[in-house]
Amino acid sequence: MKRRTQLALVWIVPPAIFALATWHVQRHYAMPEPPARLDDAARTEVVRVLRAAIAHADAAPKHLDRALDDRGPLIVTVWRDGARAMRAVGRGDTLGAAVTDAAAQLRAQPPLPAADALASRIEVDLAVARAPLGDDWVFAAFRFPAMSAELADTAPIHPGLDGIGGAGDDAALLAPGELVTEDMIDRQSAVPLLPGLTPGLDRRKLAQVIARPAFRFRTDTFVERPLATRGDGAPIPLVRGAPPAPPVTAENLRTAAENGARYLVAHLGPDGRYVYEHDLASGRRTDPRAGNYSIPRHAGVTYFLAQVYRATGEPWLREPIERAASNLEHLVEAGPCKRTIDGEPAACVYDPRLDREGASLGSSALTVVALVEYERATQDARYRPLAEELTRWILWMQRDDGSFTHVYDVEHGAKKDGVTMLYFSGEAALALARMYELTHDARYAHAAERALDWNIAWYDFFLGGFFYGEEHWTCIAAEAIWPAVDKDAYQDFCDGYGAFLRDQQAGDAHDQEDFAGSYNEASPFGMPPNTPAGSRTEAMISAYLLGVHRKHPDLRIKDQIIRAAAYLLAQQVTPDGDFAAKGGDVDGGMPGSPIDRTVRIDYVQHTGSAMLRAAEILDQSPRP
User: Between the CA of residue 441 and those of 372, 379, 384, 423, 448, what are the distances in Å?
Assistant: First the structure.
């Protein structure tokens, strides 16, 4: 009887406590349903009054009689070149009164130079709902020693949608976007075993602005159009700082991919190296000559530029592609692993500034992919000998069972077994497939087949159908080698991978509609990273095309592709949404997530390639 009682307590008490806590939080801390957003006419009128105030003119608001709870507030930020030029917080019982109050504050500030005033953009955050922060016993319960004391800070806000206010009518306010641009949302997980549980308040930084955080608030946010299109319509509604996405059409997707290429070309140095990271909030750019640089990603980005060139024929792309490829060629020529294999020259890509001990398979494989794509785009075979040398080295790194050694020990001149790197085997399979497509050398087709067979056979065990690693390069290679190698197993694997990913693809959840189509960790406490929506869509496009080739296309995968493409179009930096971005040449960039304003070159590569290839899918679809 005692044991039954103990078991009953174990099974009943924890769920009961959880249910009680859920009820308590919902009752006391849930954000009220916000009212309908302001319409075009109201947004236009608000900005008209504020625009006059910037010019130190007085304009009375018209037809802004909407009543405001808690007197707003209405936060106005005037942006110029990604920096805050002016800021005001208006309050009033009606929207018109709050706008009038904010306008008076703007007129009281030093005027902007005429050119800056004209080119500036006005962002408005109208508070439309508020709720307390979670600081009572329920949230304190998360702070016991067995868990991180910071876990409770993940609960109070919905990142990118909620702002924070302090105690007292005159206390400071931080709008949702300000929490992001001021880096007051901690993107490091409070629980090491739950990496997706990342966004939470950085209390230390927040305390420097708001001494006593008291409540969170939801906003109706909108921004004035750029000067070039200011007369084309009403101010633009924003969700997590992003404007509405254009429709998913082949033309829009190609334009987005081309804009991504423009971003990368603008971030390519004279020496052929890219600015690896660009922080949109601070404007900080990494030095291409040092720091956190990745040669496989350099090669992958160059491959993407060649993809765009092959699709568009834009002449401005050719020289930058050659500049980036020449940098890789220089690394090969200066590297230590040039050798003769079976009487033929072979080489690898090696960067002594980055690789202290070894040269990676991925660097050489993706360089081959980039060089082949250049030749496909230009019909210029200048890099063919280099690609052949690198491919011979890749063949030398392949084991008898089809797998690869991933690292070459430069110091000892030997293969370095025991080191396995993510992506490299799939990248090598794609390099071999592309070389076969270019040269029709049967050695490459056979090696690609053995590589794909090994990658796919790895999942041949009881749980193998229930999870997948990051196999996007594998599926891209499986489609690339068709029809030279045509196996049911390849389509079965990639269709299964598609089903696995569909289970992770976000839907249209309430308060998270902007996450629809993304992958990974889409919840109020975990932002979806943007790169998987690109890389996994690249894989799904190849999976779908493999089905088309083999007369068994999976239309669920096609829908998956289109949903992800819609998400990516919304996430890309555009002139409509670049008002808070610093550093110049930001349009076409792809941030890390809806709240991570860092653009890295591979973010642009994967998402741009996905959009470019998705356009081809739509081109092939029957017209309605």
Answer: 14, 18, 13, 24, 11
Backbone angles phi, psi at 93, to 5 degrees: -75, -20
Q: Provide mean pLDDT across the span 353-377.
A: 90
H/E run at residue 526: none
Q: What proportions of the chain, in percent to the nearest 5, are helix, strand and coil?
A: 45, 15, 40
- 429 vs 416: CA distance, rounded Å: 19
Provide the pLDDT confidence category of residue 161 given band limits of 50, 70 and 90: very high
pTM score, whole prediction: 0.92
10 Å Cβ neighbour count for 102? 26
Q: Mean pLDDT of all residues in the chain?
A: 89
Instruction: Write out the two tokens for 557.
Output: 């995968």
Phi-psi domain of 343 (left: phi exceeds 0; alpha: psi -120 through 50; beta: other)? left
Residue 593's SS3 state is strand
In three-state secondary structure terms, 337 is: coil
Closest by alpha carbon to 288, among 276, 280, 296, 299?
A: 276
Residue 226's pLDDT is 97
Q: Which long-range contacts (CB under 8 A, 24 or more apart) does 337-343 make?
A: 337/393, 337/408, 337/410, 337/413, 338/389, 339/393, 341/392, 341/393, 341/395, 341/396
Q: Is residue 264 helix, strand or coil?
A: helix
Q: What is the dihedral of CA 174, 177, 182, 186, to 10 degrees?
A: 100
3-state DSSP of 371-421: HHHHHHHHCCCCCHHHHHHHHHHHHHHECCCCCECCEEECCCCEEECCCCC
Residue 455 exposed, middle or buried by CB count within 10 Å (0-12, 13-18, 19+) = buried
DSSP codes joined into one string, 100-135: HHHHHHHHTSPPPPHHHHHH-EEEEEEEEEEEE-S-
Residue 173 pLDDT class (50, 70, 90 cuts): very high
Structure tokens at 27: 């009752």
Radius of gyration (C-alpha) of the chain in whole angstroms: 27
426: left (phi over 0), alpha (psi -120 to 50) or beta: alpha
Question: Beta strands of 410-466 (E only): which ranges?
Answer: 414-416
The DSSP-derived string for 544-577 is: HHHHHHTT---HHHHHHHHHHHHHHHHHS--TTT
What span, in angstroms and rounded, lies between the C-alpha atoms of 219 and 177?
10
The phi, psi pair for 617, rounded to 5°, reads -60, -45
Alpha carbons 623 and 621: distance in angstroms, whole number: 6
- Please answer whether residues 278 and 285 qualify as being in contact, where contact means their C-beta atoms are separated by less than 8 angstroms: yes
Residues 193-222 have pLDDT tens digits of: 455 555 577 878 888 898 888 899 999 999
Number of residues that make up the chain: 624
DSSP 219: E
